[in-house]
Amino acid sequence: IHNGVQFTTSTLVSPAGHPHGHGHALGPSHGHTPVPGEERETWGKKIDFLLSVIGFAVDLANVWRFPYLCYKNGGGAFLVPYLFFMVIAGMPLFYMELALGQYNREGAAGVWKICPIFKGVGFTVILISLYVGFYYNVIIAWALFYLFSSFTGELPWVHCNNTWNSPNCSDLWAFNNSLNDTHKSTPAAEYFERGVLHLQDSEGIADLGLPRWQLTSCLAVVIVVLYFSLWKGVKTSGKVVWITATMPYVVLTVLLLRGVTLPGAMDGIKAYLSVDFLRLCEPQVWIDAATQICFSLGVGFGVLIAFSSYNKFSNNCYRDAIITSSINSLTSFFSGFVIFSFLGYMSHKHSVPLDKVATDGPGLVFIIYPEAIATLPGSSVWAVIFFIMLLTLGIDSAMGGMESVITGLMDEFKFLHKHRELFTLFIVVSTFLISLFCVTNGGIYVFTLLDHFAAGTSILFGVLIEAIGIAWFYGVDRFSDDIEEMIGQRPGLYWRLCWKFVSPCFLLFMVVVSFATFNPPNYGTYTFPIWANMIGWCLAISSMTMVPLYAIYKMCTLPGKFCDVSLVHISLVYISLVYISLMFNRAITEPSTRCAPYLGSSVM
Hints:
The protein is built from 22 helices and 4 strands. It is mostly helical. The protein has one domain: Hydantoin permease, CATH 1.10.4160. The strands form 2 sheets. A two-stranded antiparallel sheet has the order 1-2. A two-stranded antiparallel sheet has the order 3-4. Helix 5 (about 120-150) packs across helix 16 (about 420-435). This is Transporter. Pfam families: SNF. InterPro entries: Na/ntran_symport, SNS_sf.
Protein backbone atom coordinates (compact mmCIF):
# COMPACT_ATOMS: atom_id res chain seq x y z
CA ILE A 1 0.00 0.00 0.00
CA HIS A 2 1.36 3.41 -0.96
CA ASN A 3 -0.35 6.72 -0.26
CA GLY A 4 -3.65 5.00 0.38
CA VAL A 5 -3.56 3.22 -3.00
CA GLN A 6 -3.35 -0.54 -2.99
CA PHE A 7 -1.40 -1.94 -5.95
CA THR A 8 -2.36 -5.16 -7.67
CA THR A 9 -1.18 -6.89 -10.81
CA SER A 10 -4.57 -7.30 -12.41
CA THR A 11 -5.22 -6.14 -15.96
CA LEU A 12 -8.58 -4.53 -16.45
CA VAL A 13 -10.74 -4.14 -19.49
CA SER A 14 -12.53 -0.92 -20.28
CA PRO A 15 -16.11 -0.87 -21.55
CA ALA A 16 -14.75 -0.23 -25.00
CA GLY A 17 -12.76 -3.44 -24.81
CA HIS A 18 -9.32 -1.85 -24.42
CA PRO A 19 -7.07 -2.92 -21.58
CA HIS A 20 -6.39 -0.44 -18.80
CA GLY A 21 -2.79 -1.21 -18.25
CA HIS A 22 -1.95 0.25 -14.87
CA GLY A 23 -3.92 -1.86 -12.42
CA HIS A 24 -3.20 -0.18 -9.11
CA ALA A 25 -6.30 0.30 -7.01
CA LEU A 26 -7.98 -1.82 -4.42
CA GLY A 27 -9.36 -4.95 -6.07
CA PRO A 28 -10.57 -3.75 -9.47
CA SER A 29 -8.71 -0.51 -9.83
CA HIS A 30 -8.15 1.33 -13.06
CA GLY A 31 -11.39 1.94 -14.89
CA HIS A 32 -14.62 0.05 -14.76
CA THR A 33 -14.72 -3.72 -14.57
CA PRO A 34 -18.00 -4.80 -16.10
CA VAL A 35 -20.25 -6.93 -13.97
CA PRO A 36 -21.00 -10.24 -15.74
CA GLY A 37 -24.18 -9.92 -17.75
CA GLU A 38 -24.41 -6.18 -17.10
CA GLU A 39 -23.39 -3.28 -19.31
CA ARG A 40 -23.47 0.25 -17.94
CA GLU A 41 -26.13 2.50 -19.35
CA THR A 42 -24.94 5.45 -21.46
CA TRP A 43 -26.52 8.71 -22.56
CA GLY A 44 -28.73 8.41 -25.63
CA LYS A 45 -27.02 11.42 -27.23
CA LYS A 46 -24.05 13.57 -26.31
CA ILE A 47 -26.32 16.61 -26.09
CA ASP A 48 -28.35 14.85 -23.36
CA PHE A 49 -25.28 14.85 -21.13
CA LEU A 50 -24.36 18.46 -21.88
CA LEU A 51 -27.89 19.69 -21.22
CA SER A 52 -28.05 17.68 -17.99
CA VAL A 53 -24.82 19.20 -16.69
CA ILE A 54 -25.83 22.70 -17.77
CA GLY A 55 -29.30 22.25 -16.29
CA PHE A 56 -27.85 21.17 -12.96
CA ALA A 57 -25.18 23.87 -12.76
CA VAL A 58 -27.49 26.66 -13.93
CA ASP A 59 -29.97 26.91 -11.11
CA LEU A 60 -31.93 29.48 -9.13
CA ALA A 61 -28.78 30.98 -7.62
CA ASN A 62 -27.66 32.12 -11.09
CA VAL A 63 -30.73 34.35 -11.16
CA TRP A 64 -30.97 35.53 -7.58
CA ARG A 65 -27.37 35.49 -6.34
CA PHE A 66 -24.75 36.45 -8.96
CA PRO A 67 -26.38 39.67 -10.27
CA TYR A 68 -26.72 41.06 -6.75
CA LEU A 69 -23.13 40.18 -5.86
CA CYS A 70 -21.93 41.87 -9.03
CA TYR A 71 -23.89 45.03 -8.24
CA LYS A 72 -22.83 45.07 -4.57
CA ASN A 73 -19.13 44.47 -5.22
CA GLY A 74 -18.14 47.08 -7.78
CA GLY A 75 -20.24 46.13 -10.81
CA GLY A 76 -18.09 45.07 -13.72
CA ALA A 77 -15.01 45.12 -11.48
CA PHE A 78 -16.43 42.07 -9.67
CA LEU A 79 -15.80 40.06 -12.83
CA VAL A 80 -12.04 40.33 -12.21
CA PRO A 81 -11.93 38.17 -9.03
CA TYR A 82 -14.82 36.05 -10.31
CA LEU A 83 -13.05 35.08 -13.54
CA PHE A 84 -9.74 34.71 -11.70
CA PHE A 85 -11.16 32.13 -9.30
CA MET A 86 -13.06 30.49 -12.15
CA VAL A 87 -9.82 29.88 -14.05
CA ILE A 88 -7.61 28.76 -11.14
CA ALA A 89 -10.17 26.69 -9.22
CA GLY A 90 -13.64 26.45 -10.76
CA MET A 91 -12.76 24.96 -14.14
CA PRO A 92 -9.96 22.67 -12.85
CA LEU A 93 -12.26 21.15 -10.21
CA PHE A 94 -15.12 20.88 -12.71
CA TYR A 95 -12.80 19.11 -15.17
CA MET A 96 -11.46 16.85 -12.43
CA GLU A 97 -14.91 15.58 -11.42
CA LEU A 98 -16.03 14.95 -14.99
CA ALA A 99 -12.84 12.98 -15.74
CA LEU A 100 -13.03 11.06 -12.46
CA GLY A 101 -16.57 9.87 -13.11
CA GLN A 102 -16.07 9.10 -16.79
CA TYR A 103 -12.91 7.03 -16.30
CA ASN A 104 -14.13 4.94 -13.39
CA ARG A 105 -17.75 4.78 -14.57
CA GLU A 106 -19.22 4.75 -11.10
CA GLY A 107 -20.95 7.14 -8.72
CA ALA A 108 -19.46 9.41 -6.07
CA ALA A 109 -18.50 6.58 -3.70
CA GLY A 110 -17.55 3.90 -6.22
CA VAL A 111 -14.95 6.04 -8.00
CA TRP A 112 -12.74 5.87 -4.91
CA LYS A 113 -11.74 2.30 -5.69
CA ILE A 114 -8.70 4.15 -7.09
CA CYS A 115 -7.81 5.27 -3.56
CA PRO A 116 -9.92 3.34 -1.02
CA ILE A 117 -8.94 5.32 2.07
CA PHE A 118 -10.83 8.32 0.63
CA LYS A 119 -14.06 6.49 -0.09
CA GLY A 120 -15.70 8.20 2.85
CA VAL A 121 -15.73 11.49 0.95
CA GLY A 122 -17.97 9.81 -1.61
CA PHE A 123 -20.53 9.10 1.09
CA THR A 124 -20.08 12.67 2.34
CA VAL A 125 -21.17 14.21 -0.97
CA ILE A 126 -24.02 11.71 -1.34
CA LEU A 127 -25.34 12.71 2.08
CA ILE A 128 -25.00 16.41 1.25
CA SER A 129 -27.01 15.95 -1.97
CA LEU A 130 -29.67 14.10 0.00
CA TYR A 131 -29.85 16.83 2.63
CA VAL A 132 -30.13 19.56 0.00
CA GLY A 133 -33.00 17.69 -1.62
CA PHE A 134 -34.95 17.95 1.64
CA TYR A 135 -35.38 21.70 1.19
CA TYR A 136 -34.51 22.49 -2.44
CA ASN A 137 -37.67 20.76 -3.67
CA VAL A 138 -39.66 23.09 -1.43
CA ILE A 139 -38.47 26.11 -3.44
CA ILE A 140 -39.81 24.44 -6.57
CA ALA A 141 -43.10 23.81 -4.74
CA TRP A 142 -43.30 27.54 -3.90
CA ALA A 143 -42.75 28.39 -7.57
CA LEU A 144 -45.49 25.93 -8.56
CA PHE A 145 -47.87 27.50 -6.01
CA TYR A 146 -47.15 30.95 -7.48
CA LEU A 147 -47.67 29.57 -10.98
CA PHE A 148 -51.14 28.27 -10.10
CA SER A 149 -51.93 31.58 -8.37
CA SER A 150 -51.00 33.48 -11.53
CA PHE A 151 -53.89 32.05 -13.55
CA THR A 152 -56.24 34.84 -12.52
CA GLY A 153 -57.41 38.18 -13.81
CA GLU A 154 -55.73 40.06 -10.96
CA LEU A 155 -52.62 38.73 -9.25
CA PRO A 156 -53.19 38.06 -5.52
CA TRP A 157 -50.14 40.05 -4.40
CA VAL A 158 -51.33 43.40 -5.81
CA HIS A 159 -53.59 44.75 -3.01
CA CYS A 160 -53.96 44.59 0.77
CA ASN A 161 -57.63 43.56 0.84
CA ASN A 162 -57.01 39.82 1.16
CA THR A 163 -57.78 37.63 4.16
CA TRP A 164 -54.10 37.05 4.92
CA ASN A 165 -53.11 40.72 4.98
CA SER A 166 -52.20 42.43 8.26
CA PRO A 167 -52.99 46.02 9.34
CA ASN A 168 -49.37 46.88 8.46
CA CYS A 169 -49.92 46.15 4.79
CA SER A 170 -49.70 49.18 2.52
CA ASP A 171 -50.30 49.45 -1.22
CA LEU A 172 -47.66 52.19 -1.23
CA TRP A 173 -44.02 51.21 -1.64
CA ALA A 174 -42.81 50.14 1.79
CA PHE A 175 -39.41 51.84 1.40
CA ASN A 176 -40.81 55.18 0.30
CA ASN A 177 -39.57 57.78 2.75
CA SER A 178 -42.95 59.46 2.79
CA LEU A 179 -44.36 56.56 4.76
CA ASN A 180 -42.04 57.16 7.70
CA ASP A 181 -43.02 53.78 9.01
CA THR A 182 -40.50 50.97 8.94
CA HIS A 183 -43.18 48.50 10.02
CA LYS A 184 -45.15 48.82 6.80
CA SER A 185 -44.99 45.91 4.36
CA THR A 186 -45.97 45.49 0.74
CA PRO A 187 -48.75 43.21 -0.55
CA ALA A 188 -46.13 41.04 -2.31
CA ALA A 189 -44.14 40.54 0.90
CA GLU A 190 -47.26 39.67 2.87
CA TYR A 191 -48.47 37.30 0.18
CA PHE A 192 -45.23 35.33 0.40
CA GLU A 193 -44.94 35.23 4.17
CA ARG A 194 -48.61 35.21 5.19
CA GLY A 195 -50.51 33.98 2.13
CA VAL A 196 -48.09 31.22 1.03
CA LEU A 197 -46.02 30.33 4.11
CA HIS A 198 -48.63 31.27 6.77
CA LEU A 199 -45.82 32.42 8.98
CA GLN A 200 -48.26 34.34 11.19
CA ASP A 201 -49.60 31.01 12.50
CA SER A 202 -46.25 29.96 13.96
CA GLU A 203 -44.24 31.39 16.84
CA GLY A 204 -40.98 29.73 15.83
CA ILE A 205 -39.30 26.45 15.02
CA ALA A 206 -40.79 24.88 18.16
CA ASP A 207 -44.28 25.63 16.83
CA LEU A 208 -44.40 24.12 13.34
CA GLY A 209 -48.00 22.99 13.08
CA LEU A 210 -49.30 20.61 10.43
CA PRO A 211 -48.28 20.67 6.75
CA ARG A 212 -50.31 23.12 4.65
CA TRP A 213 -52.34 21.08 2.18
CA GLN A 214 -51.80 23.57 -0.67
CA LEU A 215 -48.00 23.48 -0.44
CA THR A 216 -48.06 19.75 0.27
CA SER A 217 -49.99 19.20 -2.96
CA CYS A 218 -47.48 21.29 -4.91
CA LEU A 219 -44.60 19.40 -3.30
CA ALA A 220 -46.24 16.09 -4.22
CA VAL A 221 -46.49 17.22 -7.86
CA VAL A 222 -42.79 18.11 -7.84
CA ILE A 223 -41.88 14.71 -6.38
CA VAL A 224 -43.99 12.88 -8.99
CA VAL A 225 -42.30 14.83 -11.81
CA LEU A 226 -38.88 14.01 -10.35
CA TYR A 227 -39.70 10.33 -10.03
CA PHE A 228 -40.89 9.87 -13.61
CA SER A 229 -37.88 11.86 -14.83
CA LEU A 230 -35.44 9.59 -13.02
CA TRP A 231 -37.00 6.15 -12.68
CA LYS A 232 -35.55 4.74 -15.91
CA GLY A 233 -32.14 6.38 -15.53
CA VAL A 234 -30.42 8.72 -17.95
CA LYS A 235 -32.51 7.48 -20.86
CA THR A 236 -35.49 9.38 -19.44
CA SER A 237 -33.77 12.22 -17.59
CA GLY A 238 -31.72 12.97 -20.71
CA LYS A 239 -34.94 13.73 -22.57
CA VAL A 240 -36.54 15.82 -19.81
CA VAL A 241 -33.61 18.26 -19.78
CA TRP A 242 -34.30 19.17 -23.40
CA ILE A 243 -37.14 21.22 -21.94
CA THR A 244 -35.94 22.09 -18.43
CA ALA A 245 -32.43 23.17 -19.48
CA THR A 246 -33.42 25.21 -22.54
CA MET A 247 -36.65 26.84 -21.37
CA PRO A 248 -34.91 29.26 -18.93
CA TYR A 249 -32.89 30.78 -21.79
CA VAL A 250 -36.02 31.39 -23.85
CA VAL A 251 -37.82 32.99 -20.90
CA LEU A 252 -34.81 35.07 -19.84
CA THR A 253 -34.54 36.43 -23.38
CA VAL A 254 -38.26 37.26 -23.51
CA LEU A 255 -38.11 38.97 -20.09
CA LEU A 256 -35.03 40.96 -21.14
CA LEU A 257 -36.74 42.19 -24.31
CA ARG A 258 -39.67 43.32 -22.19
CA GLY A 259 -37.52 44.69 -19.38
CA VAL A 260 -35.37 47.02 -21.47
CA THR A 261 -38.50 48.80 -22.74
CA LEU A 262 -39.53 49.82 -19.21
CA PRO A 263 -38.77 53.30 -17.83
CA GLY A 264 -35.71 53.27 -15.59
CA ALA A 265 -34.44 49.94 -17.00
CA MET A 266 -31.28 51.46 -18.44
CA ASP A 267 -30.44 53.04 -15.08
CA GLY A 268 -30.66 49.63 -13.47
CA ILE A 269 -28.42 48.03 -16.10
CA LYS A 270 -25.90 50.86 -15.81
CA ALA A 271 -25.76 50.32 -12.04
CA TYR A 272 -25.26 46.58 -12.63
CA LEU A 273 -22.32 47.20 -14.97
CA SER A 274 -20.79 50.28 -13.35
CA VAL A 275 -17.09 49.66 -12.72
CA ASP A 276 -15.52 50.56 -9.38
CA PHE A 277 -12.04 49.06 -9.32
CA LEU A 278 -11.36 50.52 -5.87
CA ARG A 279 -13.69 47.85 -4.46
CA LEU A 280 -11.11 45.25 -5.44
CA CYS A 281 -9.02 46.45 -2.50
CA GLU A 282 -11.66 45.09 -0.13
CA PRO A 283 -11.15 41.46 0.98
CA GLN A 284 -14.91 40.81 1.13
CA VAL A 285 -15.21 41.29 -2.64
CA TRP A 286 -12.71 38.49 -3.25
CA ILE A 287 -14.35 36.28 -0.64
CA ASP A 288 -17.77 36.78 -2.30
CA ALA A 289 -16.30 35.91 -5.71
CA ALA A 290 -14.60 32.77 -4.37
CA THR A 291 -17.76 31.67 -2.57
CA GLN A 292 -19.86 32.17 -5.69
CA ILE A 293 -17.46 30.05 -7.75
CA CYS A 294 -17.48 27.29 -5.15
CA PHE A 295 -21.24 26.91 -5.13
CA SER A 296 -22.36 28.00 -8.60
CA LEU A 297 -20.62 25.26 -10.60
CA GLY A 298 -22.07 22.44 -8.53
CA VAL A 299 -18.74 20.82 -7.71
CA GLY A 300 -18.84 18.58 -4.64
CA PHE A 301 -22.41 17.32 -4.87
CA GLY A 302 -21.40 14.14 -6.70
CA VAL A 303 -23.65 15.11 -9.60
CA LEU A 304 -20.89 15.75 -12.14
CA ILE A 305 -19.31 12.41 -11.23
CA ALA A 306 -22.64 10.61 -11.59
CA PHE A 307 -23.54 12.24 -14.91
CA SER A 308 -20.12 11.70 -16.48
CA SER A 309 -20.08 8.05 -15.37
CA TYR A 310 -22.72 7.40 -18.05
CA ASN A 311 -20.52 8.84 -20.82
CA LYS A 312 -18.74 6.75 -23.38
CA PHE A 313 -15.18 6.01 -22.29
CA SER A 314 -13.62 8.04 -25.10
CA ASN A 315 -15.82 11.11 -24.64
CA ASN A 316 -13.88 14.41 -24.65
CA CYS A 317 -14.54 15.44 -21.05
CA TYR A 318 -12.00 18.28 -21.33
CA ARG A 319 -14.06 20.03 -23.97
CA ASP A 320 -17.25 19.36 -22.00
CA ALA A 321 -15.77 20.96 -18.87
CA ILE A 322 -14.78 24.13 -20.73
CA ILE A 323 -18.13 24.44 -22.52
CA THR A 324 -20.45 23.77 -19.58
CA SER A 325 -18.58 25.81 -16.97
CA SER A 326 -18.37 28.74 -19.40
CA ILE A 327 -22.08 28.56 -20.19
CA ASN A 328 -22.85 28.56 -16.48
CA SER A 329 -20.89 31.77 -15.89
CA LEU A 330 -22.27 33.47 -19.00
CA THR A 331 -25.81 32.61 -17.88
CA SER A 332 -25.18 34.25 -14.51
CA PHE A 333 -23.93 37.39 -16.24
CA PHE A 334 -26.79 37.43 -18.74
CA SER A 335 -29.44 37.00 -16.04
CA GLY A 336 -28.12 40.16 -14.40
CA PHE A 337 -29.39 42.23 -17.32
CA VAL A 338 -32.85 40.70 -16.89
CA ILE A 339 -32.95 41.24 -13.14
CA PHE A 340 -31.57 44.79 -13.09
CA SER A 341 -33.74 46.02 -15.95
CA PHE A 342 -36.75 45.26 -13.74
CA LEU A 343 -35.07 46.53 -10.56
CA GLY A 344 -34.27 49.80 -12.35
CA TYR A 345 -37.92 49.99 -13.36
CA MET A 346 -39.03 49.46 -9.75
CA SER A 347 -36.59 52.11 -8.54
CA HIS A 348 -37.93 54.57 -11.12
CA LYS A 349 -41.58 53.76 -10.50
CA HIS A 350 -41.41 54.24 -6.73
CA SER A 351 -38.79 57.03 -6.80
CA VAL A 352 -36.44 55.22 -4.43
CA PRO A 353 -32.70 54.49 -4.73
CA LEU A 354 -31.81 51.25 -6.48
CA ASP A 355 -30.19 49.80 -3.37
CA LYS A 356 -33.60 49.89 -1.68
CA VAL A 357 -34.99 47.36 -4.15
CA ALA A 358 -31.84 45.39 -5.01
CA THR A 359 -31.66 42.16 -3.03
CA ASP A 360 -30.82 38.50 -3.55
CA GLY A 361 -32.18 35.16 -2.45
CA PRO A 362 -35.82 34.05 -2.44
CA GLY A 363 -36.87 37.61 -1.60
CA LEU A 364 -35.89 38.64 -5.12
CA VAL A 365 -37.85 36.00 -7.03
CA PHE A 366 -40.84 35.65 -4.68
CA ILE A 367 -41.34 39.27 -3.57
CA ILE A 368 -39.51 41.95 -5.59
CA TYR A 369 -39.79 40.46 -9.09
CA PRO A 370 -43.47 39.40 -8.76
CA GLU A 371 -44.24 42.92 -7.50
CA ALA A 372 -42.57 44.40 -10.59
CA ILE A 373 -44.43 42.02 -12.90
CA ALA A 374 -47.74 42.92 -11.25
CA THR A 375 -47.42 46.53 -12.48
CA LEU A 376 -47.14 45.53 -16.15
CA PRO A 377 -50.02 45.28 -18.64
CA GLY A 378 -50.97 41.62 -18.99
CA SER A 379 -49.29 40.92 -15.66
CA SER A 380 -50.79 37.44 -15.29
CA VAL A 381 -49.18 36.29 -18.54
CA TRP A 382 -45.78 37.63 -17.49
CA ALA A 383 -46.14 36.00 -14.08
CA VAL A 384 -46.91 32.62 -15.67
CA ILE A 385 -43.85 32.94 -17.92
CA PHE A 386 -41.59 33.94 -15.02
CA PHE A 387 -42.64 31.11 -12.70
CA ILE A 388 -42.37 28.54 -15.47
CA MET A 389 -38.75 29.67 -15.76
CA LEU A 390 -38.23 29.19 -12.00
CA LEU A 391 -39.78 25.72 -12.22
CA THR A 392 -37.50 24.60 -15.02
CA LEU A 393 -34.44 26.12 -13.33
CA GLY A 394 -35.23 24.20 -10.17
CA ILE A 395 -36.38 20.87 -11.60
CA ASP A 396 -33.21 19.92 -13.48
CA SER A 397 -31.01 20.95 -10.54
CA ALA A 398 -33.16 18.81 -8.24
CA MET A 399 -32.91 15.95 -10.74
CA GLY A 400 -29.13 16.22 -10.66
CA GLY A 401 -28.95 16.09 -6.88
CA MET A 402 -31.26 13.10 -6.69
CA GLU A 403 -29.38 11.29 -9.47
CA SER A 404 -26.19 11.74 -7.46
CA VAL A 405 -27.76 9.90 -4.53
CA ILE A 406 -29.34 7.16 -6.65
CA THR A 407 -26.29 6.47 -8.82
CA GLY A 408 -23.87 6.71 -5.90
CA LEU A 409 -25.72 4.16 -3.79
CA MET A 410 -26.66 1.85 -6.68
CA ASP A 411 -23.04 1.58 -7.80
CA GLU A 412 -21.96 0.87 -4.24
CA PHE A 413 -24.66 -1.75 -3.63
CA LYS A 414 -24.82 -3.60 -6.93
CA PHE A 415 -28.00 -5.54 -6.19
CA LEU A 416 -29.94 -2.25 -6.46
CA HIS A 417 -29.26 -2.11 -10.21
CA LYS A 418 -32.01 -4.68 -10.74
CA HIS A 419 -34.47 -2.58 -8.76
CA ARG A 420 -33.83 0.94 -10.10
CA GLU A 421 -37.53 1.89 -10.20
CA LEU A 422 -38.24 0.76 -6.62
CA PHE A 423 -35.07 2.31 -5.21
CA THR A 424 -35.80 5.62 -6.96
CA LEU A 425 -39.31 5.51 -5.51
CA PHE A 426 -37.86 4.92 -2.03
CA ILE A 427 -35.50 7.90 -2.36
CA VAL A 428 -38.11 10.36 -3.66
CA VAL A 429 -40.75 9.30 -1.11
CA SER A 430 -38.24 9.60 1.74
CA THR A 431 -37.29 13.05 0.50
CA PHE A 432 -40.96 14.02 0.31
CA LEU A 433 -41.66 12.92 3.88
CA ILE A 434 -38.76 14.94 5.31
CA SER A 435 -39.69 17.93 3.15
CA LEU A 436 -43.13 18.02 4.78
CA PHE A 437 -41.51 19.75 7.76
CA CYS A 438 -40.74 22.66 5.41
CA VAL A 439 -44.35 23.18 4.30
CA THR A 440 -45.85 23.57 7.77
CA ASN A 441 -46.80 26.96 9.23
CA GLY A 442 -43.30 27.26 10.67
CA GLY A 443 -41.71 25.43 7.77
CA ILE A 444 -39.61 28.42 6.72
CA TYR A 445 -37.63 28.02 9.96
CA VAL A 446 -36.81 24.39 9.14
CA PHE A 447 -36.01 25.46 5.60
CA THR A 448 -33.64 28.18 6.83
CA LEU A 449 -31.90 25.78 9.21
CA LEU A 450 -31.35 23.21 6.46
CA ASP A 451 -30.18 25.87 4.01
CA HIS A 452 -27.70 27.21 6.53
CA PHE A 453 -26.11 23.93 7.59
CA ALA A 454 -26.69 21.23 4.95
CA ALA A 455 -24.25 22.36 2.27
CA GLY A 456 -22.06 25.15 3.60
CA THR A 457 -18.74 24.36 5.22
CA SER A 458 -19.37 20.63 4.83
CA ILE A 459 -19.33 20.72 1.03
CA LEU A 460 -16.16 22.83 0.98
CA PHE A 461 -14.59 20.26 3.29
CA GLY A 462 -15.73 17.45 0.98
CA VAL A 463 -14.29 19.04 -2.16
CA LEU A 464 -11.03 19.78 -0.32
CA ILE A 465 -10.61 16.13 0.71
CA GLU A 466 -11.57 15.07 -2.82
CA ALA A 467 -8.94 17.35 -4.38
CA ILE A 468 -6.26 16.18 -1.92
CA GLY A 469 -7.13 12.54 -2.58
CA ILE A 470 -6.76 12.90 -6.34
CA ALA A 471 -3.73 15.22 -6.39
CA TRP A 472 -1.61 13.92 -3.54
CA PHE A 473 -2.63 10.32 -2.91
CA TYR A 474 -3.79 8.91 -6.22
CA GLY A 475 -1.37 11.27 -7.94
CA VAL A 476 -1.70 13.94 -10.61
CA ASP A 477 0.54 12.01 -12.99
CA ARG A 478 -1.55 8.87 -12.68
CA PHE A 479 -4.75 10.90 -13.05
CA SER A 480 -3.31 12.56 -16.17
CA ASP A 481 -2.51 9.12 -17.58
CA ASP A 482 -6.17 8.18 -17.11
CA ILE A 483 -7.33 11.25 -19.01
CA GLU A 484 -4.86 10.62 -21.80
CA GLU A 485 -6.16 7.07 -22.09
CA MET A 486 -9.70 8.41 -22.53
CA ILE A 487 -9.27 11.39 -24.86
CA GLY A 488 -5.82 10.79 -26.31
CA GLN A 489 -4.48 14.05 -24.92
CA ARG A 490 -2.60 14.55 -21.68
CA PRO A 491 -3.65 17.55 -19.53
CA GLY A 492 -1.22 20.45 -19.84
CA LEU A 493 1.09 21.73 -17.14
CA TYR A 494 -1.43 24.40 -16.17
CA TRP A 495 -4.13 21.87 -15.25
CA ARG A 496 -1.69 19.65 -13.37
CA LEU A 497 -0.38 22.59 -11.33
CA CYS A 498 -3.92 23.67 -10.49
CA TRP A 499 -4.88 20.16 -9.34
CA LYS A 500 -1.68 19.70 -7.37
CA PHE A 501 -1.27 23.06 -5.66
CA VAL A 502 -3.62 25.90 -6.59
CA SER A 503 -7.05 24.27 -6.18
CA PRO A 504 -6.28 22.56 -2.84
CA CYS A 505 -4.86 25.83 -1.46
CA PHE A 506 -7.91 27.71 -2.72
CA LEU A 507 -10.26 25.20 -1.07
CA LEU A 508 -8.30 25.25 2.17
CA PHE A 509 -8.60 29.04 2.17
CA MET A 510 -12.37 28.79 1.57
CA VAL A 511 -12.81 26.28 4.41
CA VAL A 512 -10.95 28.61 6.81
CA VAL A 513 -12.96 31.64 5.62
CA SER A 514 -16.22 29.73 5.92
CA PHE A 515 -15.36 28.69 9.44
CA ALA A 516 -14.10 32.12 10.50
CA THR A 517 -17.06 34.09 9.09
CA PHE A 518 -19.79 31.74 10.24
CA ASN A 519 -22.87 33.29 11.83
CA PRO A 520 -25.80 31.44 13.38
CA PRO A 521 -28.92 31.39 11.18
CA ASN A 522 -31.89 33.69 11.63
CA TYR A 523 -35.02 34.58 9.72
CA GLY A 524 -35.72 38.30 9.81
CA THR A 525 -35.99 39.22 13.49
CA TYR A 526 -36.33 35.60 14.60
CA THR A 527 -33.23 34.10 16.21
CA PHE A 528 -32.98 30.33 16.42
CA PRO A 529 -32.72 28.70 19.86
CA ILE A 530 -29.52 26.94 20.88
CA TRP A 531 -31.03 23.45 20.47
CA ALA A 532 -31.95 24.25 16.85
CA ASN A 533 -28.39 25.38 16.12
CA MET A 534 -27.12 22.16 17.69
CA ILE A 535 -29.34 20.13 15.37
CA GLY A 536 -27.97 22.11 12.44
CA TRP A 537 -24.39 21.46 13.46
CA CYS A 538 -25.12 17.76 13.90
CA LEU A 539 -26.51 17.73 10.36
CA ALA A 540 -23.38 19.38 8.97
CA ILE A 541 -21.01 17.18 10.96
CA SER A 542 -22.89 13.97 10.10
CA SER A 543 -21.84 14.18 6.46
CA MET A 544 -18.23 15.13 7.22
CA THR A 545 -17.74 12.26 9.69
CA MET A 546 -18.00 9.84 6.78
CA VAL A 547 -14.38 10.67 5.87
CA PRO A 548 -12.68 9.65 9.15
CA LEU A 549 -15.16 6.85 9.91
CA TYR A 550 -14.55 5.08 6.61
CA ALA A 551 -10.79 5.66 6.91
CA ILE A 552 -10.83 4.03 10.36
CA TYR A 553 -12.89 1.14 9.00
CA LYS A 554 -10.39 0.71 6.16
CA MET A 555 -7.43 0.73 8.53
CA CYS A 556 -9.06 -1.95 10.65
CA THR A 557 -9.89 -4.24 7.73
CA LEU A 558 -6.68 -3.95 5.68
CA PRO A 559 -4.36 -6.96 5.99
CA GLY A 560 -1.28 -6.54 8.19
CA LYS A 561 -0.65 -5.08 11.61
CA PHE A 562 -1.97 -1.70 12.66
CA CYS A 563 1.56 -0.33 12.91
CA ASP A 564 2.06 -1.18 9.23
CA VAL A 565 -0.70 1.18 8.14
CA SER A 566 0.63 4.11 6.13
CA LEU A 567 1.16 7.35 7.98
CA VAL A 568 -1.10 9.11 5.47
CA HIS A 569 -4.05 7.00 6.58
CA ILE A 570 -3.60 8.13 10.15
CA SER A 571 -3.00 11.73 9.05
CA LEU A 572 -6.26 11.79 7.10
CA VAL A 573 -8.21 10.53 10.07
CA TYR A 574 -6.46 12.91 12.44
CA ILE A 575 -7.03 16.00 10.28
CA SER A 576 -10.69 15.13 9.72
CA LEU A 577 -11.36 14.52 13.40
CA VAL A 578 -9.58 17.72 14.47
CA TYR A 579 -11.56 19.77 11.97
CA ILE A 580 -14.88 18.23 12.96
CA SER A 581 -14.11 18.63 16.68
CA LEU A 582 -13.34 22.31 16.10
CA MET A 583 -16.69 22.76 14.38
CA PHE A 584 -18.49 20.92 17.17
CA ASN A 585 -16.73 23.05 19.78
CA ARG A 586 -17.84 26.17 17.95
CA ALA A 587 -21.40 24.86 17.82
CA ILE A 588 -21.38 24.61 21.62
CA THR A 589 -19.67 27.91 22.39
CA GLU A 590 -20.96 30.22 19.64
CA PRO A 591 -23.05 33.21 20.73
CA SER A 592 -26.62 33.44 19.54
CA THR A 593 -25.93 36.55 17.51
CA ARG A 594 -27.97 37.46 14.49
CA CYS A 595 -26.75 37.46 10.92
CA ALA A 596 -28.22 39.00 7.79
CA PRO A 597 -31.92 38.29 7.16
CA TYR A 598 -32.56 35.08 5.30
CA LEU A 599 -34.18 36.76 2.35
CA GLY A 600 -30.75 38.07 1.48
CA SER A 601 -29.04 34.69 1.61
CA SER A 602 -28.42 32.17 -1.12
CA VAL A 603 -29.53 28.64 -1.64
CA MET A 604 -27.13 26.28 -3.30
